[in-house]
Amino acid sequence: MSDSGDFIEQYDRPAVSDPSDPFAGLDPWDEEKARQLAAEEGIELTDDHWQILRALRAHYAEREGKLQAVETLRFMEEQVRSHQLKDLYKLFPNGPVRQATKIAGIPTPHEAVDPHFGSVM
Fold this sequence. Notes:
Elements: H1 4-11, H2 31-40, H3 47-62, H4 69-79, H5 85-91, H6 96-104
């Protein structure tokens, strides 16, 4: 896992001058912003949360800002130490894709905006 300082330096702020940057046009993001967004969701961030959030931001950049909900959910499941979906829901109980993308400061895939996406009802 990379040092959080290296990650934040690379992915924290959009390069406004580069329209091909997938982070261009997004709100500024850093660890403090993530903590604030997590608190709004009732989540206290742990090392496991940070691992997923950093990987998700890197994945967003690699995919050039084009995320699909199901693919993103599978990607996130791979990032959980156990590789089990139930553990992902323990970290992000109100919808892993919706909550994690919000906290990571990236757009939520449109399919995950539906509150029933990924629910275990």
